[in-house]
Fold this protein.
Amino acid sequence: MSLQMMKKAMVGAIGAAALMGAASAQALTVTPGTGPSNVYTFQGSNVTLSQSVFDLSCDLELEGYVEQSGQDLTVTVTGGESSGGTLGLCSSVTFGFPWVTTVTVSSTADDVTLNGVFTGVNVTGPFGLCGTGNDSVPATFTYVNPTSQPNSSFNFDADIGNCSVNGTVSETTGNLLVTNP
């Protein structure tokens, strides 16, 4: 190998190492962890669940986990329930899971709001199935990095067939932190 080719190879190797270092320096960090073994619970009071002309003010609890790949966060909701409301009608609202959304984090700000769309949403209200049983529902995810707000949260304001949901559920343990250096 000539000296000229060795110099080019060395410059190429240094450039590749620098790019790999820059990419790894920008990776998100999810604390305390990711995957199904790290379950996070989100709760909200006075979440409005509507079907046809009937509005219910309910307590909503959703739980699931977060996975991270590069700058993408995938949130999978694996369970949840609705309770409270007039005459306990909110408990008649049932859900089918999982619901999944992926959001891309591009900001390094302390608290970031991202728009996502949950897919696979299945909701049945007091008067029957709300949508198709496999609906897409937009939600706004706000994560804290490390925190100036009390909790990470999801805000829903969407129609699901002949139903709608409007309200916020916040992470109850206050320990889901997303860091984007």
In short: The CA atoms of residues 92 and 126 lie 5 Å apart. Confidence is low (pLDDT under 50) at residues 1-25. Helices lie at 3-25.
